[in-house]
Task: structure prediction
Amino acid sequence: MKKEKFDSFLSGKLIDLIILDQKIVKSTDWYKWLNFKKNTDYLEVGKFPNTLKDQIFYLKNHIHLKKEIISSNRLSKKLQLGIVEKKSNTLIGMVVAYNFNYFNRTCSVSSIIDYRKRLNNKIRLFKESQDLIIEHVFFKMNFRKICTGTSSEKLSLLSEKLWGFKREGTLKKHAFINGEYVDNFILGLFREDWKIFKKKLN
Result:
């Protein structure tokens, strides 16, 4: 079996964050992730079937591609990178930075791990991928605050524990998930707090 070659952008111990292109859309099962209910339980997507054609359209219209990512220009679309587990050389998830506000120096981040993949150290892979995008946003792109949100109490607490995010508010009965309206938790992380948080872990 031919080993897939990925274009690495940020590299960690267990994973690489790679640049996405049409070849990756066509040669991996990426588009199928959004058709698996457990992957989309707490996401806005998943209400309609996702196709290969849909995924290519998304890539072209919503994600910055290689030339734009490596330039020093301001990004207006999403900086979305694939998560590749080094050991298996498999695309297992995505991280994304978006909503770039260059006046306030704020943006948002989110991520997804494909639950269909059998991963022994899923939390470690998830943490390292998010660590890399947080570091990049704070110290390469020079943003001062990162926001994130979730409709899961469990994921909200995990974000506080693993990265030092602090809950800033709750949108009551904001998201329609699994047949009911649920709260959406808004979290924030300042660059100076991230520095302190990292020191505590070391």
